């Protein structure tokens, strides 16, 4: 089993970090460009396993995907109705975004497509997308009563019909799949969520000339005739990747880090709200718009943190950041109580279980697992230990930061960071 040793930081973390491209936006930039009929140059693309799965799938569906460098590519599609039947099975790898969004697009196509993915993706629930798409008239079949991979999308018997869907979960992937199917449907399609989830799909559809109507927690789309592709998309840095450095800079004494080009879409900035509530010293600089999305540079400095309580309402805005927030909570004074986070049990792994089990190896007894959240006792006495990543990139990176502020850590299966942040360990070395 592959392992990596992370040592305790000898001094404060210092330096400038250019944050790699946003994963969610990188996926959508390739997917939507492949539905246009003019070349789109995509800059600051995240060259990581998940996004490369999307690029490979769009190529298999007939789009031209040409890499100029690791982070720059040109995608040319054959128009909104120009996708071709893939000659082979589409492999989504570890990427739930690739699979769920493409199910929405392919539900309306006149050809058959079959998906597979890695062992982790085979365990993740797809019924939450297949059920509403089936209600629109899609013909989608999967294992375990149409809930799990492998999944086959058969041409619908007739044109999909729009609908009003009250989603039981605030999920950008569920919302996006239904809206993308709605583009090809008859009549309007509305998705209403319990809370507003991240809106990268809506932002990018607008950049491709698609009109959407938002009211409260609901979004409505009309049938779309044509995509008007922009000539260029510049992907801002991923706030989920910046989160590790925001926390590291806040908890390692003497630290001062400047994070360049971070996306600050309001549906993603829950991490900033929670860290500021904890007493973190984070300053936004050079605020601007990049690829139709708000972006800024972030200066973070060490500060004394205190425990906080937060729940379901903010969860869609920071669901991916819970593992690294748990690291901040271990270094804060007082308890942090997290509720409404049951969605973490169906991510790349059961993240609530993984956080409790692995973090307690470094901070014995400090993390209590609850059914839909965690209670974290701050001021933990951190010790060196060997911990397992569960092949989950966010668990691995969070463990590394915890080892940096504590007494070090040995991480088993550390290479899973390639899913979203291949340069992570190298960057951690450079700022010490």
UniProtKB/TrEMBL annotation:
Lineage, highest ranks first: Bacteria, Bacillati, Bacillota, Negativicutes, Selenomonadales
Keyword annotations of the record: Amino-acid biosynthesis, Aromatic amino acid biosynthesis, Cytoplasm, Transferase
Binding site for phosphoenolpyruvate: 23, 96, 124, 173, 351, 394
Keyword check for Signal: no
Function comment: Catalyzes the transfer of the enolpyruvyl moiety of phosphoenolpyruvate (PEP) to the 5-hydroxyl of shikimate-3-phosphate (S3P) to produce enolpyruvyl shikimate-3-phosphate and inorganic phosphate.
Pfam families per UniProt: EPSP_synthase
Subunit structure: Monomer.
GO biological process: amino acid biosynthetic process; aromatic amino acid family biosynthetic process; chorismate biosynthetic process
Family listed: Belongs to the EPSP synthase family.
UniProt subcellular location: Cytoplasm
Positions of 3-phosphoshikimate binding: 23-24, 28, 171, 173, 320, 347
The reaction(s) this protein catalyses: 3-phosphoshikimate + phosphoenolpyruvate = 5-O-(1-carboxyvinyl)-3-phosphoshikimate + phosphate
A single cellular component GO annotation: cytoplasm
Any one GO molecular function term: 3-phosphoshikimate 1-carboxyvinyltransferase activity
Primary site of residence: cytoplasm
Keyword Calcium among UniProt keywords: no
Pathway: Metabolic intermediate biosynthesis; chorismate biosynthesis; chorismate from D-erythrose 4-phosphate and phosphoenolpyruvate: step 6/7
Xref: Gene3D superfamilies: Enolpyruvate transferase domain (3.65.10.10)
Active-site residues annotated for this sequence: 320
Name the record gives this protein: 3-phosphoshikimate 1-carboxyvinyltransferase
EC number: 2.5.1.19
């Amino acid at each position: 089993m592959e392992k990596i040793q992370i040592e305790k930081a000898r001094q404060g973390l210092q330096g400038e970090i250019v944050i790699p491209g946003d994963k969610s936006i990188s996926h959508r930039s390739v997917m939507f460009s492949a539905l246009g009929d003019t070349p789109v140059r995509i800059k600051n693309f995240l060259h990581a396993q998940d996004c490369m799965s999307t690029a490979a799938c769009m190529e298999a569906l007939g789009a031209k995907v040409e890499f100029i460098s690791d982070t720059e590519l040109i995608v040319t599609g054959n128009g909104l109705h120009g996708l071709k039947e893939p000659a082979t099975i589409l492999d989504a790898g570890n990427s739930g975004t690739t699979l769920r969004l493409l199910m929405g697009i392919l539900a309306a196509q006149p050809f058959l497509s079959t998906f597979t993915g890695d062992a982790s993706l085979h365990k993740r629930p797809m019924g939450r997308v297949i059920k509403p798409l089936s209600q629109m008239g899609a013909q989608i079949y999967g294992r375990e009563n149409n809930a799990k991979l492998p999944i086959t999308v058969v041409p619908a018997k007739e044109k999909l019909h729009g609908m009003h869907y009250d989603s039981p979960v605030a999920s950008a992937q569920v919302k996006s799949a239904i809206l993308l199917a709605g583009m090809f449907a008859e009549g309007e399609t509305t998705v209403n969520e319990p809370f507003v989830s991240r809106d990268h799909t809506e932002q990018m559809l607008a950049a491709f000339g698609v009109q959407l109507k938002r009211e409260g927690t609901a979004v409505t789309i009309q049938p779309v005739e044509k995509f008007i592709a922009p000539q260029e998309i510049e992907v801002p840095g991923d706030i989920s990747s910046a989160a590790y450095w925001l926390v590291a800079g806040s908890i390692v004494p003497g630290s001062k880090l400047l994070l360049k080009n971070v996306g600050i879409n309001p549906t993603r900035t829950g991490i900033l709200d929670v860290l500021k509530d904890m007493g973190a010293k984070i300053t936004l600089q050079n605020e601007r718009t990049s690829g139709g999305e708000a972006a800024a540079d972030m200066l973070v400095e060490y500060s004394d943190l205190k425990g906080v309580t937060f729940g379901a309402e903010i969860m869609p805005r920071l669901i991916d950041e819970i593992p690294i927030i748990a690291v901040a909570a271990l270094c804060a004074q007082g308890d942090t109580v997290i509720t409404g986070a049951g969605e973490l049990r169906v991510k790349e792994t059961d993240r609530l279980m993984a956080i409790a089990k692995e973090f307690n190896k470094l901070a014995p007894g400090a993390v209590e697992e609850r059914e839909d959240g965690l209670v974290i006792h701050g001021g933990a006495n951190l010790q060196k230990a060997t911990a397992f990543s569960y092949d989950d990139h966010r668990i691995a990176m969070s463990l590394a930061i915890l080892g940096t502020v504590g007494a070090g850590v040995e991480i088993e299966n550390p290479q899973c960071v390639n899913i979203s942040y291949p340069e992570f360990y190298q960057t951690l070395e450079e700022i010490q």
